[in-house]
Amino acid sequence: MTIFLELGQQPDEPGPPIHGPARYPDEVTTRLRADAATVIGRYPHPRSALLPLLHLVQAEDGCLTPAGIAFCAAELGLTDAEVTAVATFYSMYRRTPTGDYLVGVCTNTLCAIMGGDAILETLTDHLGVRPGETTDDGVVTLEHVECNAACDYAPVVMVNWEFFDNQTPSSARDLVDALRSGHPPAPSRSPALCTFRETARTLAGLSHSGSPDTAAPAGPATLAGLRCAHERGMAAPPPDRPATDSVSGDPGSDQAEAAEAVRDQPAPAPSADVPARPATPETDPKAADSQ
Q: Keywords for this entry (predicted)?
């Protein structure tokens, strides 16, 4: 029996092709070039600035467009295809218009156990949109996200990549209502919430009027491991501690001396050489003659 499986992206994965205007107007290009020059000047090689430049054009359009792709390519001496290949690899670059607030619900293991799936289902029903879609007023875009390393305060909802910790279906519903009413609450770990385009500009390495000056200190749950280590008298070895033989524990052993001798040397570069294989009658007819 033959079974056909239709493979493809999940509905909430970024899949639509990049679309929109092909080129920026001259005044927009001139303005963006001034910002791009600042970003590119921070890197020894211009093409190293591609990721922040993609954030710059995303701040301009709210998502990636052919105009943004072409701008990055022209500024860095790349082809549109090279820029598109990078842009479509990372989920942080949006392919469809994004609202003022990108609301991401984590449903990875710990957040799911703590209620992340219920939060996503609640917001889907409450907002009337599926993950990847934007509300009719253009304010909120709902997104399903993978782990964002905030498990200490799970379940977590992210708004423009800012953490809102210890969420419940009810608190998440209140959160999006506040966003849509024009009164965005402060995130759990920073003093203010920026719009999506302002956040993209920050990720490009450029400031804006809403840039926060300070961030909240790490909370008790984040520092639990450090607190436990202090209570047990545990600490990392000092950086100048002499190397120790892994077998005998003798700092003066031959292995320790060998390790000390190469400690500050750079790691060997990877080799492109392929080890030669012994010739066989199947790979080399001359080998058959010699036998």
A: Oxidoreductase
* Cβ atoms 164, 187 nearer than 8 A: yes
Is the domain of 84 the same as that of 15?
yes
Handedness of CA 132, 130, 196, 216 (dihedral sign): negative
DSSP state letters, 230-253: HHTT--PPPTTPPP--TTT--TTS
CA 282 centroid distance within chain: 48
Round to whole Å and give the CA distance between 59 and 155.
Answer: 28
State the pLDDT at residue 105: 95
For tokens 């479509």, name the residue: 88
* Cα 146 from Cα 111, distance rounded (Å): 10
**pLDDT tens digits for range 164-189:** 999 999 999 999 999 999 999 999 98
Q: How many CA atoms lie within 13 A of 272 on its CB side?
A: 0
CATH number at residue 169: 3.40.30.10
Which residue type does 178 have?
A: A
Q: Are residues 92 and 121 in the same domain?
A: no
**How many C-beta atoms surround the C-beta of residue 183 within 10 A?**
8
Q: What is the mean pLDDT of the chain?
A: 84
**Angle of CA points 11, 22, 51, to nearest 5°:** 65
Q: 200 and 73: one domain?
A: yes
Q: Euclidean distance between the first and final Cα of the chain, in Å?
A: 49
Sequence-ordered alpha helix ranges (H) in the chain: 26-40, 50-61, 66-76, 80-87, 109-113, 116-127, 169-180, 196-203, 224-231, 254-261, 285-290
